[in-house]
Structures are given as structure tokens and as C-alpha cells.
């Protein structure tokens, strides 16, 4: 935080606190020279104001809150860049990467770093649970994902991991949304086998559908869109679709000449009714016209191997349940 903002926050905060103290002092003084209980000559709606002092308990409590506030600001961070005498912080504010965070967490003995303290406590409380569900007993060998998926307790843990880390994009029910795949069906871009699902979680995915407007022109975009829609049985203008089939040869490099996609590239199957960015004519035309860029982040540096194994098992069994 810059010096300007540190000074601004400090002056504003302390000015408010000391201003409240000054107001209490002013209210406890008798500037009228009147005796206690004497009429002050003010009336509103039939109510007369008498010269009565503030209740002692009220003024004492007010002073207590002022003193508490000053002590708190002295011990804890709150005045701009000032870190407080205790050195407490919610997290390591200067960390800029996951690697730096891990290094700081492993080397830090600062019990006043709230984030590191909570992570360490969570690992202490639940680390053994993750390990018992993901590893074979008394070995360092991970259980197969298919076997983990048969354990109710493991699936409950996997569901919690999913909601903590994946639901922001794929939804709490894993059915996805525009641009984020539905994980409960079998329309897998890179393959839905347990090993492929784990690979996706570990290393992430980068999808790139190039824009074709400059190469095809507006007419070409509409023709290819018509043909792509016809592959899934949609009713389209047959003349447009015929022209689009000729142009589709450049699309076949990724989607295949039959339009059934290629998991090696993450190219979707165009013969089904599953459209990642929407299956309306306009949405398909926009995909061809402007392209699409999708990123699935890698979780290998964020989640431990046992958590990834449990998460993979949960995601895999979602599509198995949906299609039983």
C-alpha cells in the first residue's frame, strides 16, 4: 500500500476515534452554568429539556470502546501498511505464485498467518482421511479410480472437493454452462476414461477453435454452419449445406471428415446434439466466425495427488450414473 493511502486511512480512522472522544467530553461538560435537573428552556412537542448529565454507564462504555479500538489498532493491522505489534496477517500479501505460496507455507513458523495456520490445521485434521480413501492400505500405491468410485465415503469427499474447486465453472450439479462442459453426459472432448479425466484435471486443457471469417467470408460461415447443423439431424437449407460440405474439408483436419471429432485435439463431435457454446444457428455461426478459446486450469500444483484421485473418481462416476 502506498504512503498516501496509509496516511489517508490512518488520519481518517484515528481522526474519527479521537473525534468521538472529544464529543463525549463535550457532552459531559456543563457550558450553561445550570444546576442538575434545571430547565434548559427548550421545548419540542410538549417535552421540556432538563439539564441532566449523561448516564455514567453510557459514558464509561463509550470510553471502553474507544480504548479497545486504539489497542486493537496498535496490535493488529488496520492502518494502511502498518502490520501491528503482533504481526498477524490474513495471508502472505507479497506472494505472487503458487510455488511461492507453497515455499512460504512449508518454511513459515508464523502462527499469526491465518491462511497458513488454517491450511496446516486442515491437513492435520483431514490429511489421513484423504490418504485412507485414495491409497491402498499400508502402501504408497493409489487405488484405481474405478475402485474408489464404488466407495460412498470417497464419493462424498470427492463431491466436496468438486464443489470447492470445480463448481464455479461446471456448476454445483456438474451440468456445466455456456463454454463449460457438462460432466454428467458422455460428450467428452478429450475422452471420458478415468485416466483421461485425471489427465485433464492434473494438466489442464487449452482449447483453440480458430476464427474463419477472414478465410471463408460471411457466406462461407453460414454455409459451413448449415452443414455442421445438418450433421446432427437439424433441418437446414439443403443448398447452403451442400456448399458448406465442400468448405468443411478445412474443418475435417480437427473434427474428422465425418464430423465425429477427435479427442486427441479436443475437437468436439458435431454429429450429436451437445454444443459447448450453444447449438442455435447464431451460436454455431459465431463459433465459426470468431472462433473459441477455452482454458481448463491445471490442478497439479493446487491439489495433492490423493485429492486429485478422489476428484477424478467423483467426476468419472457422474457420467456413469447418468447413462446407466
From TrEMBL:
GO cellular component entries: plasma membrane
Cited SUPFAM superfamilies: Cytochrome c
Listed pathway(s): Energy metabolism; oxidative phosphorylation
Binding site for heme c 2: 209, 251, 254-255
Transmembrane segments: 7-26, 57-75
Cofactor: heme c
Molecular function, one GO term: iron ion binding
Ranges of residues in domain Cytochrome c: 153-232, 239-319
Top-level taxon: Bacteria
UniProt record similarity statement: Belongs to the CcoP / FixP family.
Main function: C-type cytochrome. Part of the cbb3-type cytochrome c oxidase complex.
Complexes and interactors: Component of the cbb3-type cytochrome c oxidase.
Protein name per UniProt: Cbb3-type cytochrome c oxidase subunit
Gene: ccoP
Amino acid at each position: 500500500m502506498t504512503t498516501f493511502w496509509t496516511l489517508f486511512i490512518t488520519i481518517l480512522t484515528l481522526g474519527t476515534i479521537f473525534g468521538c472522544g472529544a464529543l463525549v467530553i463535550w457532552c459531559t461538560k456543563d457550558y450553561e452554568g445550570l444546576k442538575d435537573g434545571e430547565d434548559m428552556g427548550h421545548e419540542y412537542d410538549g417535552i421540556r429539556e432538563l439539564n441532566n448529565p449523561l448516564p455514567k454507564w453510557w459514558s464509561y462504555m463509550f470510553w471502553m470502546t474507544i480504548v479497545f479500538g486504539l489497542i486493537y489498532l496498535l496490535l493488529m493491522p488496520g492502518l494502511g501498511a502498518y502490520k501491528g505489534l503482533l504481526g498477524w496477517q490474513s495471508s502472505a500479501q507479497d506472494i505472487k505464485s503458487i510455488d511461492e505460496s507453497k515455499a512460504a507455507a512449508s518454511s513459515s513458523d508464523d502462527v499469526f498467518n491465518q491462511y497458513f495456520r488454517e491450511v496446516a490445521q486442515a491437513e492435520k485434521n483431514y490429511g489421513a482421511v484423504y490418504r485412507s480413501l485414495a491409497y491402498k492400505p499400508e502402501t504408497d500405491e493409489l487405488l484405481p479410480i474405478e475402485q474408489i468410485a464404488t466407495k460412498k465415503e470417497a464419493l462424498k469427499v470427492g463431491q466436496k472437493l468438486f464443489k470447492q474447486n470445480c463448481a464455479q465453472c461446471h456448476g454445483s450439479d456438474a451440468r456445466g454452462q455456456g463454454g463449460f462442459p457438462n460432466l454428467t453426459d458422455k460428450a467428452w472432448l478429450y475422452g471420458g476414461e478415468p485416466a483421461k479425466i485425471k489427465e485433464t484435471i492434473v494438466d489442464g486443457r487449452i482449447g483453440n477453435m480458430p476464427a474463419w471469417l477472414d478465410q471463408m467470408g460471411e457466406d462461407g460461415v453460414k454455409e459451413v454452419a448449415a452443414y455442421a447443423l445438418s450433421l446432427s439431424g437439424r433441418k437446414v437449407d439443403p443448398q447452403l449445406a451442400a456448399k458448406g460440405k465442400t468448405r468443411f474439408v478445412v474443418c475435417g483436419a480437427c473434427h474428422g471428415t465425418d464430423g465425429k471429432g477427435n479427442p486427441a485435439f479436443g475437437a468436439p463431435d458435431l454429429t450429436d446434439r451437445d454444443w459447448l457454446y450453444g447449438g442455435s444457428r447464431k451460436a454455431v455461426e459465431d463459433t465459426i466466425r470468431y472462433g473459441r478459446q477455452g482454458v481448463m486450469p491445471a490442478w497439479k500444483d493446487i491439489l495433492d495427488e490423493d485429492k486429485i484421485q478422489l476428484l477424478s473418481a467423483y467426476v468419472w462416476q457422474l457420467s456413469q450414473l447418468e447413462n446407466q
